User: Fold this.
Amino acid sequence: METIIARLLKDFEDGKMNRRQLIKSLAVAAVAATGSASVGAQTAAPAAAAPWKTVWLDHISYAVSDYRKSTAFYRDLMGWTVRNDNGTNQATLNINGMGGIIIRNRRAPAEGQPPTSPTASASQGTQAPTPITGVINHVSWGVQPWDTEKVKAELEKRGLNPRPDMVGENFKSWHVKDPDGWDLQISNQTKDSRD
Assistant:
């Protein structure tokens, strides 16, 4: 499964698919991995490529339990700058010129309801809540300069208990948990080294 995801992400980063195609492909891969596809079921044909390619990350949006705590965590650990903070429930950070991240307090679902995502109902043309079943396993951010032991020491200094994740001879990275328990990977892998 990791190989499939890595290939899809590389295709996205290389401009071979747009964000919508990436999300659809990841969803199909997740369904296949859980074994929920029935034997002999037809797979969807690939969608035609859009007449554009993705050229930058606009933003990522995180729903967190305490936006101030998470904002400080990413600002201090990753060196991102706070672009704006509404002072009550949301801040936007600049990811060193490659895009932004919106960190906001999550909205609690209605009592007794699972988290949902709106999707269009084809038969009614209306928005109907659909239970969220997919999750992002982790987010990996490449950092420079890289020194495996110095990065580990800095993470330990911050009380983050880094776990190693090594692929190949020259690739090393560390996994830590952010304030909400998200798996954050700090990596020396650069775009040019992902072949």
